[in-house]
Amino acid sequence: MVEYVVGYAVVEKGASRGEIRDALESVYAEANERADRGVGEIWSPTAGGGTRPSSVLVRNCASFETAALEMDSDASANLGVKSGAMHFVWSFNTIESGKLSEEHVHQYVGEVMERMGLAHHRSVAVVHRDTIVRHPETGEVLDGNLHVHVAVGSVDPRTYLAYDRTQLHGRMARAEREVEQVHRLENDRGLYVLRDRDLPTERIELATTKELASWRAEREADRLVQLERKSFAGYVTRDQTFERYGDAVVGPRFSQSLDALRERGVKPTWAEMHTVAARYGCELQQDEEGTVILRDVGIGELRLKQRDVLDAARKAARAMEREEAEAMLAGVRVRHAKVAGEERARKRMVGDTVRLDAVLRDDLSDVGSFLDVRAAEDRLAESIRPEDVLRFSPNGIRTRVTAVRGRRPRPLDDRAAWLPGRDSNSNNRLQRPASYR
Protein backbone atom coordinates (compact mmCIF):
# COMPACT_ATOMS: atom_id res chain seq x y z
CA MET A 1 0.00 0.00 0.00
CA VAL A 2 2.80 2.45 0.84
CA GLU A 3 4.51 1.75 -2.48
CA TYR A 4 1.23 2.38 -4.28
CA VAL A 5 0.49 5.65 -2.45
CA VAL A 6 3.99 7.05 -2.98
CA GLY A 7 4.61 5.56 -6.42
CA TYR A 8 1.25 6.78 -7.71
CA ALA A 9 2.14 10.23 -6.42
CA VAL A 10 5.53 10.71 -8.09
CA VAL A 11 4.82 9.42 -11.61
CA GLU A 12 2.40 10.30 -14.36
CA LYS A 13 -0.84 8.35 -14.59
CA GLY A 14 -0.45 5.23 -16.70
CA ALA A 15 3.23 4.80 -15.84
CA SER A 16 4.75 1.34 -16.15
CA ARG A 17 5.84 -0.69 -13.13
CA GLY A 18 9.44 -0.01 -14.05
CA GLU A 19 8.87 3.73 -14.05
CA ILE A 20 7.11 3.53 -10.69
CA ARG A 21 9.97 1.47 -9.24
CA ASP A 22 12.58 3.97 -10.47
CA ALA A 23 10.60 6.88 -9.05
CA LEU A 24 10.29 5.15 -5.68
CA GLU A 25 14.02 4.49 -5.55
CA SER A 26 14.76 8.18 -6.16
CA VAL A 27 12.39 9.25 -3.36
CA TYR A 28 13.81 6.66 -0.96
CA ALA A 29 17.33 7.89 -1.73
CA GLU A 30 16.28 11.47 -1.07
CA ALA A 31 14.69 10.47 2.26
CA ASN A 32 17.80 8.55 3.35
CA GLU A 33 19.93 11.65 2.79
CA ARG A 34 17.87 13.52 5.35
CA ALA A 35 18.93 13.47 9.01
CA ASP A 36 15.45 12.31 10.04
CA ARG A 37 15.36 9.67 7.25
CA GLY A 38 12.05 11.16 6.10
CA VAL A 39 10.19 10.49 9.37
CA GLY A 40 8.46 12.81 11.83
CA GLU A 41 8.86 15.98 9.75
CA ILE A 42 6.92 17.33 6.79
CA TRP A 43 9.08 17.36 3.66
CA SER A 44 8.61 17.80 -0.09
CA PRO A 45 10.29 15.26 -2.41
CA THR A 46 12.10 16.82 -5.35
CA ALA A 47 10.40 14.33 -7.66
CA GLY A 48 7.02 15.79 -6.74
CA GLY A 49 7.74 19.20 -8.18
CA GLY A 50 5.83 20.80 -5.31
CA THR A 51 2.46 19.42 -6.43
CA ARG A 52 2.40 15.62 -6.70
CA PRO A 53 3.25 15.07 -3.95
CA SER A 54 3.52 18.53 -2.47
CA SER A 55 4.55 17.01 0.88
CA VAL A 56 4.99 13.77 2.83
CA LEU A 57 4.71 13.02 6.53
CA VAL A 58 5.66 9.63 7.98
CA ARG A 59 4.60 8.80 11.54
CA ASN A 60 5.75 6.08 13.94
CA CYS A 61 8.23 4.45 11.55
CA ALA A 62 12.01 4.06 11.68
CA SER A 63 12.48 5.44 8.17
CA PHE A 64 10.49 6.36 5.10
CA GLU A 65 12.10 3.57 3.09
CA THR A 66 11.18 0.86 5.60
CA ALA A 67 7.63 2.08 6.38
CA ALA A 68 5.96 -0.58 4.21
CA LEU A 69 8.15 -3.34 5.66
CA GLU A 70 7.36 -2.24 9.20
CA MET A 71 3.60 -2.29 8.54
CA ASP A 72 3.85 -5.74 6.97
CA SER A 73 5.98 -6.96 9.87
CA ASP A 74 3.38 -5.78 12.38
CA ALA A 75 0.64 -7.53 10.40
CA SER A 76 2.61 -10.79 10.22
CA ALA A 77 2.46 -10.99 14.02
CA ASN A 78 -1.33 -11.23 13.83
CA LEU A 79 -2.53 -14.23 11.85
CA GLY A 80 -6.02 -12.75 11.47
CA VAL A 81 -4.81 -9.78 9.43
CA LYS A 82 -4.76 -10.17 5.66
CA SER A 83 -3.53 -6.69 4.65
CA GLY A 84 -0.77 -4.79 6.40
CA ALA A 85 -2.20 -1.33 5.65
CA MET A 86 -5.43 0.58 5.16
CA HIS A 87 -5.86 3.35 2.57
CA PHE A 88 -7.70 6.58 3.43
CA VAL A 89 -8.20 9.66 1.23
CA TRP A 90 -9.27 13.11 2.42
CA SER A 91 -10.15 15.83 -0.08
CA PHE A 92 -10.77 19.55 0.54
CA ASN A 93 -13.00 21.92 -1.40
CA THR A 94 -11.64 24.45 -3.89
CA ILE A 95 -11.71 27.42 -1.50
CA GLU A 96 -9.90 25.58 1.29
CA SER A 97 -7.44 24.14 -1.22
CA GLY A 98 -6.17 27.66 -1.83
CA LYS A 99 -5.85 28.49 1.86
CA LEU A 100 -4.58 25.39 3.66
CA SER A 101 -0.84 24.96 4.11
CA GLU A 102 0.96 21.62 4.23
CA GLU A 103 1.10 21.93 8.02
CA HIS A 104 -2.67 22.49 8.23
CA VAL A 105 -3.42 19.43 6.09
CA HIS A 106 -1.15 17.10 8.05
CA GLN A 107 -2.47 18.47 11.34
CA TYR A 108 -6.01 17.72 10.21
CA VAL A 109 -5.09 14.16 9.22
CA GLY A 110 -3.24 13.59 12.49
CA GLU A 111 -6.11 14.81 14.65
CA VAL A 112 -8.71 12.79 12.76
CA MET A 113 -6.61 9.62 13.10
CA GLU A 114 -6.07 10.32 16.80
CA ARG A 115 -9.84 10.53 17.36
CA MET A 116 -10.22 7.28 15.42
CA GLY A 117 -7.76 5.54 17.73
CA LEU A 118 -4.97 5.38 15.13
CA ALA A 119 -2.47 7.77 16.72
CA HIS A 120 0.04 4.99 17.50
CA HIS A 121 -0.27 3.18 14.18
CA ARG A 122 2.41 3.60 11.53
CA SER A 123 1.31 5.88 8.68
CA VAL A 124 2.48 7.61 5.52
CA ALA A 125 0.53 10.70 4.40
CA VAL A 126 1.08 12.06 0.90
CA VAL A 127 -0.49 15.41 -0.16
CA HIS A 128 -1.41 16.10 -3.80
CA ARG A 129 -1.98 19.56 -5.29
CA ASP A 130 -1.70 18.59 -8.97
CA THR A 131 -5.42 19.02 -9.72
CA ILE A 132 -5.47 22.66 -8.57
CA VAL A 133 -5.89 25.30 -11.29
CA ARG A 134 -4.75 28.83 -10.47
CA HIS A 135 -5.34 32.18 -12.15
CA PRO A 136 -2.23 32.95 -14.25
CA GLU A 137 -1.92 36.47 -12.86
CA THR A 138 -3.40 36.56 -9.36
CA GLY A 139 -2.60 33.00 -8.35
CA GLU A 140 -6.15 32.56 -7.05
CA VAL A 141 -7.37 28.97 -7.01
CA LEU A 142 -10.05 28.60 -9.70
CA ASP A 143 -10.67 24.87 -9.64
CA GLY A 144 -9.39 21.56 -8.29
CA ASN A 145 -9.10 19.91 -4.91
CA LEU A 146 -6.18 19.44 -2.56
CA HIS A 147 -6.28 15.85 -1.35
CA VAL A 148 -4.17 13.57 0.81
CA HIS A 149 -3.62 9.82 0.52
CA VAL A 150 -2.78 8.04 3.77
CA ALA A 151 -1.50 4.49 4.19
CA VAL A 152 -2.12 3.43 7.79
CA GLY A 153 -0.87 0.23 9.39
CA SER A 154 -3.66 -2.26 10.14
CA VAL A 155 -2.00 -3.40 13.37
CA ASP A 156 -1.02 -1.43 16.48
CA PRO A 157 2.80 -1.88 16.75
CA ARG A 158 2.61 -1.73 20.56
CA THR A 159 0.08 -4.53 21.07
CA TYR A 160 -0.06 -6.26 17.65
CA LEU A 161 -3.83 -6.07 17.84
CA ALA A 162 -5.67 -5.41 14.57
CA TYR A 163 -7.57 -2.15 14.26
CA ASP A 164 -11.28 -2.67 14.89
CA ARG A 165 -13.05 -1.51 11.73
CA THR A 166 -16.56 -1.89 13.15
CA GLN A 167 -18.61 1.14 12.05
CA LEU A 168 -15.45 2.61 10.56
CA HIS A 169 -17.23 5.13 8.32
CA GLY A 170 -19.38 6.41 11.16
CA ARG A 171 -16.43 6.86 13.51
CA MET A 172 -14.45 8.56 10.75
CA ALA A 173 -17.30 10.98 9.97
CA ARG A 174 -17.66 11.83 13.67
CA ALA A 175 -13.92 12.49 13.98
CA GLU A 176 -13.93 14.66 10.85
CA ARG A 177 -16.80 16.84 12.13
CA GLU A 178 -15.05 17.26 15.49
CA VAL A 179 -11.81 18.44 13.87
CA GLU A 180 -13.72 20.71 11.50
CA GLN A 181 -15.53 22.17 14.48
CA VAL A 182 -12.30 22.84 16.38
CA HIS A 183 -10.50 24.50 13.47
CA ARG A 184 -13.62 26.13 11.95
CA LEU A 185 -13.18 24.39 8.62
CA GLU A 186 -15.97 23.94 6.10
CA ASN A 187 -18.29 21.20 7.28
CA ASP A 188 -18.40 18.21 4.96
CA ARG A 189 -21.29 15.82 4.50
CA GLY A 190 -21.25 12.37 5.99
CA LEU A 191 -22.94 10.06 8.45
CA TYR A 192 -22.48 12.83 11.03
CA VAL A 193 -23.24 16.54 10.52
CA LEU A 194 -22.64 19.75 12.47
CA ARG A 195 -25.91 21.46 13.42
CA ASP A 196 -26.50 25.15 14.23
CA ARG A 197 -22.96 26.25 13.47
CA ASP A 198 -21.83 29.37 15.37
CA LEU A 199 -24.92 29.24 17.58
CA PRO A 200 -25.10 28.33 21.28
CA THR A 201 -26.86 25.11 20.25
CA GLU A 202 -24.03 23.98 17.93
CA ARG A 203 -23.72 20.21 18.08
CA ILE A 204 -22.73 17.11 16.09
CA GLU A 205 -25.51 14.68 15.22
CA LEU A 206 -26.20 11.74 12.95
CA ALA A 207 -27.44 12.77 9.52
CA THR A 208 -31.10 12.05 8.85
CA THR A 209 -32.23 9.50 6.28
CA LYS A 210 -33.70 12.35 4.19
CA GLU A 211 -30.36 14.15 4.15
CA LEU A 212 -28.51 10.99 3.14
CA ALA A 213 -31.04 10.32 0.37
CA SER A 214 -30.76 13.90 -0.89
CA TRP A 215 -26.97 13.76 -0.99
CA ARG A 216 -27.11 10.40 -2.74
CA ALA A 217 -29.32 11.98 -5.41
CA GLU A 218 -26.82 14.79 -5.87
CA ARG A 219 -23.98 12.30 -6.27
CA GLU A 220 -26.05 10.42 -8.82
CA ALA A 221 -26.59 13.66 -10.76
CA ASP A 222 -22.86 14.36 -10.70
CA ARG A 223 -22.17 10.79 -11.83
CA LEU A 224 -24.51 11.22 -14.79
CA VAL A 225 -22.63 14.37 -15.80
CA GLN A 226 -19.34 12.48 -15.65
CA LEU A 227 -20.80 9.66 -17.74
CA GLU A 228 -22.03 12.10 -20.36
CA ARG A 229 -18.51 13.47 -20.68
CA LYS A 230 -17.62 10.08 -22.16
CA SER A 231 -20.24 10.55 -24.90
CA PHE A 232 -19.59 12.14 -28.30
CA ALA A 233 -20.32 15.62 -26.88
CA GLY A 234 -17.25 15.29 -24.67
CA TYR A 235 -15.02 14.35 -27.61
CA VAL A 236 -16.49 16.46 -30.42
CA THR A 237 -13.54 18.88 -30.47
CA ARG A 238 -11.07 16.05 -30.91
CA ASP A 239 -12.99 13.66 -33.14
CA GLN A 240 -15.05 16.18 -35.18
CA THR A 241 -17.47 13.54 -36.46
CA PHE A 242 -19.55 10.85 -34.75
CA GLU A 243 -18.15 8.28 -37.16
CA ARG A 244 -14.63 9.07 -35.97
CA TYR A 245 -15.78 8.90 -32.33
CA GLY A 246 -17.38 5.52 -32.89
CA ASP A 247 -14.26 4.15 -34.54
CA ALA A 248 -11.79 5.58 -32.00
CA VAL A 249 -13.72 5.20 -28.74
CA VAL A 250 -16.81 2.99 -28.83
CA GLY A 251 -15.63 0.32 -31.25
CA PRO A 252 -12.53 -0.63 -29.21
CA ARG A 253 -14.70 -0.86 -26.05
CA PHE A 254 -17.03 -3.30 -27.81
CA SER A 255 -14.00 -5.41 -28.77
CA GLN A 256 -12.58 -5.37 -25.24
CA SER A 257 -15.87 -6.51 -23.72
CA LEU A 258 -16.37 -9.28 -26.30
CA ASP A 259 -12.80 -10.49 -25.86
CA ALA A 260 -13.15 -10.55 -22.07
CA LEU A 261 -16.29 -12.68 -22.26
CA ARG A 262 -14.89 -15.08 -24.84
CA GLU A 263 -11.66 -15.57 -22.89
CA ARG A 264 -13.77 -16.72 -19.94
CA GLY A 265 -15.69 -19.14 -22.13
CA VAL A 266 -18.89 -17.09 -21.87
CA LYS A 267 -21.10 -16.54 -24.90
CA PRO A 268 -21.61 -12.79 -25.46
CA THR A 269 -25.11 -11.40 -25.93
CA TRP A 270 -26.71 -8.21 -27.14
CA ALA A 271 -27.28 -7.30 -23.49
CA GLU A 272 -23.54 -6.68 -23.09
CA MET A 273 -23.43 -4.77 -26.38
CA HIS A 274 -26.23 -2.44 -25.24
CA THR A 275 -24.48 -1.93 -21.91
CA VAL A 276 -21.26 -0.77 -23.55
CA ALA A 277 -23.13 1.48 -25.98
CA ALA A 278 -25.06 3.11 -23.12
CA ARG A 279 -21.85 3.79 -21.23
CA TYR A 280 -20.58 5.93 -24.09
CA GLY A 281 -23.77 7.86 -24.76
CA CYS A 282 -24.91 5.68 -27.65
CA GLU A 283 -27.65 3.23 -28.52
CA LEU A 284 -27.69 0.25 -30.85
CA GLN A 285 -30.63 0.22 -33.27
CA GLN A 286 -31.70 -1.29 -36.58
CA ASP A 287 -32.47 0.93 -39.56
CA GLU A 288 -35.23 0.33 -42.10
CA GLU A 289 -32.99 -1.98 -44.10
CA GLY A 290 -32.21 -4.16 -41.08
CA THR A 291 -28.65 -2.85 -40.68
CA VAL A 292 -27.42 -2.52 -37.09
CA ILE A 293 -26.40 1.08 -36.42
CA LEU A 294 -24.81 2.96 -33.55
CA ARG A 295 -26.69 6.18 -32.72
CA ASP A 296 -25.52 9.15 -30.65
CA VAL A 297 -28.04 9.69 -27.84
CA GLY A 298 -25.72 11.60 -25.48
CA ILE A 299 -27.07 14.69 -23.72
CA GLY A 300 -23.82 15.98 -22.24
CA GLU A 301 -24.41 19.68 -22.89
CA LEU A 302 -27.86 19.51 -21.32
CA ARG A 303 -26.51 17.69 -18.26
CA LEU A 304 -23.85 20.35 -17.75
CA LYS A 305 -26.43 23.15 -17.96
CA GLN A 306 -28.69 21.32 -15.54
CA ARG A 307 -25.83 20.85 -13.11
CA ASP A 308 -25.19 24.62 -13.11
CA VAL A 309 -28.88 25.29 -12.46
CA LEU A 310 -28.93 22.73 -9.64
CA ASP A 311 -25.78 24.20 -8.07
CA ALA A 312 -27.43 27.63 -8.06
CA ALA A 313 -30.55 26.13 -6.51
CA ARG A 314 -28.48 24.47 -3.80
CA LYS A 315 -26.91 27.81 -2.89
CA ALA A 316 -30.34 29.46 -2.72
CA ALA A 317 -31.59 26.60 -0.54
CA ARG A 318 -29.11 27.47 2.19
CA ALA A 319 -31.22 30.48 3.13
CA MET A 320 -34.45 28.44 3.34
CA GLU A 321 -36.00 26.26 5.98
CA ARG A 322 -35.10 22.59 5.56
CA GLU A 323 -38.51 21.39 4.33
CA GLU A 324 -38.85 24.32 1.92
CA ALA A 325 -35.35 23.71 0.56
CA GLU A 326 -35.97 19.99 0.09
CA ALA A 327 -39.23 20.66 -1.77
CA MET A 328 -37.60 23.26 -4.01
CA LEU A 329 -34.64 21.00 -4.91
CA ALA A 330 -36.95 18.04 -5.50
CA GLY A 331 -38.94 20.16 -7.95
CA VAL A 332 -35.77 21.12 -9.83
CA ARG A 333 -34.71 17.49 -10.12
CA VAL A 334 -38.12 16.40 -11.38
CA ARG A 335 -38.09 19.09 -14.08
CA HIS A 336 -34.55 18.17 -15.07
CA ALA A 337 -35.43 14.49 -15.30
CA LYS A 338 -38.42 15.29 -17.53
CA VAL A 339 -36.37 17.50 -19.87
CA ALA A 340 -33.51 14.98 -19.99
CA GLY A 341 -35.93 12.19 -20.85
CA GLU A 342 -37.49 14.23 -23.63
CA GLU A 343 -34.10 15.18 -25.06
CA ARG A 344 -32.89 11.59 -24.91
CA ALA A 345 -36.05 10.47 -26.75
CA ARG A 346 -35.43 13.11 -29.40
CA LYS A 347 -31.81 12.02 -29.87
CA ARG A 348 -32.98 8.42 -30.28
CA MET A 349 -34.80 9.60 -33.39
CA VAL A 350 -32.44 12.19 -34.90
CA GLY A 351 -29.00 11.57 -33.35
CA ASP A 352 -26.01 10.98 -35.63
CA THR A 353 -25.48 7.38 -36.71
CA VAL A 354 -22.80 5.07 -38.06
CA ARG A 355 -23.02 1.43 -39.12
CA LEU A 356 -21.89 -0.94 -36.36
CA ASP A 357 -19.73 -2.93 -38.78
CA ALA A 358 -17.88 0.30 -39.63
CA VAL A 359 -16.60 0.68 -36.07
CA LEU A 360 -16.50 -2.96 -34.91
CA ARG A 361 -14.60 -5.52 -36.99
CA ASP A 362 -15.30 -8.49 -34.71
CA ASP A 363 -17.21 -11.54 -35.91
CA LEU A 364 -20.60 -11.37 -34.16
CA SER A 365 -21.89 -14.75 -35.31
CA ASP A 366 -21.77 -16.08 -31.73
CA VAL A 367 -23.83 -13.12 -30.49
CA GLY A 368 -26.83 -14.11 -32.62
CA SER A 369 -29.47 -12.08 -34.40
CA PHE A 370 -29.87 -8.49 -33.32
CA LEU A 371 -32.08 -7.82 -30.31
CA ASP A 372 -33.21 -4.31 -29.45
CA VAL A 373 -33.04 -2.96 -25.92
CA ARG A 374 -36.39 -4.39 -24.81
CA ALA A 375 -35.78 -7.82 -26.33
CA ALA A 376 -32.27 -7.98 -24.87
CA GLU A 377 -33.74 -6.91 -21.54
CA ASP A 378 -36.28 -9.75 -21.64
CA ARG A 379 -33.63 -12.28 -22.68
CA LEU A 380 -31.35 -11.23 -19.82
CA ALA A 381 -34.20 -11.35 -17.31
CA GLU A 382 -35.05 -14.88 -18.40
CA SER A 383 -31.45 -15.98 -17.84
CA ILE A 384 -31.29 -14.72 -14.24
CA ARG A 385 -31.60 -17.46 -11.67
CA PRO A 386 -32.94 -16.94 -8.12
CA GLU A 387 -29.52 -17.79 -6.66
CA ASP A 388 -28.00 -14.95 -8.73
CA VAL A 389 -30.29 -12.43 -7.03
CA LEU A 390 -29.18 -13.64 -3.62
CA ARG A 391 -25.52 -13.79 -4.62
CA PHE A 392 -25.44 -10.22 -5.90
CA SER A 393 -27.70 -8.69 -3.25
CA PRO A 394 -27.75 -5.93 -2.03
CA ASN A 395 -25.94 -4.31 -4.97
CA GLY A 396 -28.43 -5.58 -7.53
CA ILE A 397 -28.04 -7.87 -10.50
CA ARG A 398 -25.00 -7.00 -12.61
CA THR A 399 -24.20 -7.92 -16.17
CA ARG A 400 -21.03 -9.79 -17.04
CA VAL A 401 -19.50 -7.03 -19.13
CA THR A 402 -16.01 -5.83 -18.32
CA ALA A 403 -14.09 -2.95 -19.82
CA VAL A 404 -10.61 -1.59 -19.34
CA ARG A 405 -10.48 1.43 -17.05
CA GLY A 406 -6.90 2.58 -16.93
CA ARG A 407 -4.62 -0.42 -16.47
CA ARG A 408 -7.04 -2.70 -14.62
CA PRO A 409 -10.34 -4.23 -15.81
CA ARG A 410 -13.39 -3.15 -13.87
CA PRO A 411 -17.02 -4.25 -14.09
CA LEU A 412 -19.38 -1.94 -15.94
CA ASP A 413 -22.38 -0.77 -13.99
CA ASP A 414 -24.09 1.36 -16.61
CA ARG A 415 -26.57 -1.28 -17.59
CA ALA A 416 -28.81 0.70 -15.23
CA ALA A 417 -29.07 3.31 -18.01
CA TRP A 418 -31.21 0.91 -20.04
CA LEU A 419 -32.22 -1.90 -17.67
CA PRO A 420 -33.40 -0.27 -14.43
CA GLY A 421 -36.65 -2.17 -14.27
CA ARG A 422 -34.95 -5.57 -13.95
CA ASP A 423 -32.34 -4.50 -11.39
CA SER A 424 -32.91 -6.01 -7.96
CA ASN A 425 -31.78 -2.69 -6.49
CA SER A 426 -32.68 -0.14 -9.17
CA ASN A 427 -32.80 2.80 -6.74
CA ASN A 428 -29.11 2.41 -5.92
CA ARG A 429 -27.38 2.62 -9.29
CA LEU A 430 -23.93 3.27 -7.91
CA GLN A 431 -22.04 0.03 -7.53
CA ARG A 432 -20.44 -0.18 -4.12
CA PRO A 433 -16.65 -0.11 -3.98
CA ALA A 434 -16.65 -3.43 -2.14
CA SER A 435 -18.09 -5.12 -5.23
CA TYR A 436 -15.01 -4.17 -7.21
CA ARG A 437 -12.70 -6.15 -4.97
Q: What this model shows, in words?
A:
There is one protein chain. This protein has helices spanning 2-10, 17-32, 67-76, 94-97, 102-115, 168-183, 209-228, 232-239, 242-263, 270-279, 300-317, 322-350, 356-359, 373-383, 386-392, and strands at residues 55-59, 85-91, 123-128, 133-134, 141-143, 147-153, 192-195, 203-206, 282-286, 292-296, 353-355, 402-405, 408-411. The chain is an alpha+beta fold and 437 residues long. The chain folds into 2 domains: 2-165, no CATH class; 241-297 and 351-436, no CATH class. The chain starts with a helix and ends in a 26-residue tail after the last strand. It contains 15 helices and 13 strands. The strands form 5 sheets. The protein has a 4-stranded antiparallel beta sheet, with helices on both faces. Strands 9-10-11 form a 3-stranded antiparallel beta sheet. Strands 4-5 form a two-stranded antiparallel sheet.
Question: Short description, anyone?
Answer:
The chain has 437 residues and is an alpha+beta fold.
List the keywords.
14% strand, alpha+beta, 437 residues
List the helices and strands and how they pair.
Elements (H helix, E strand, L loop, with lengths): L1 H9 L6 H16 L22 E5 L7 H10 L8 E7 L2 H4 L4 H14 L7 E6 L4 E2 L6 E3 L3 E7 L14 H16 L8 E4 L7 E4 L2 H20 L3 H8 L2 H22 L6 H10 L2 E5 L5 E5 L3 H18 L4 H29 L2 E3 H4 L13 H11 L2 H7 L9 E4 L2 E4 L26
Antiparallel strand pairs: 1-3, 2-6, 3-6, 4-5, 7-8, 9-10, 10-11, 12-13
Number of helices in the DSSP assignment: 15
Structural classification: alpha+beta
Main β sheet profile: 4 strands, antiparallel
Please indicate the count of domains. 2
Radius of gyration equals 25 Å
Beta strands, count: 13
Q: What percentage of residues falls in helices of 4 or more residues? A: 40-55%
What are the low-pLDDT stretches, counting only 5+ consecutive residues below 50?
Answer: 389-437
Largest beta sheet: strand ordering: 1-3-6-2
Mean pLDDT: 79
Compressed to H and E, one letter per element, the order equals: HHEHEHHEEEEHEEHHHHEEHHEHHHEE
Distance between the termini: 15 Å
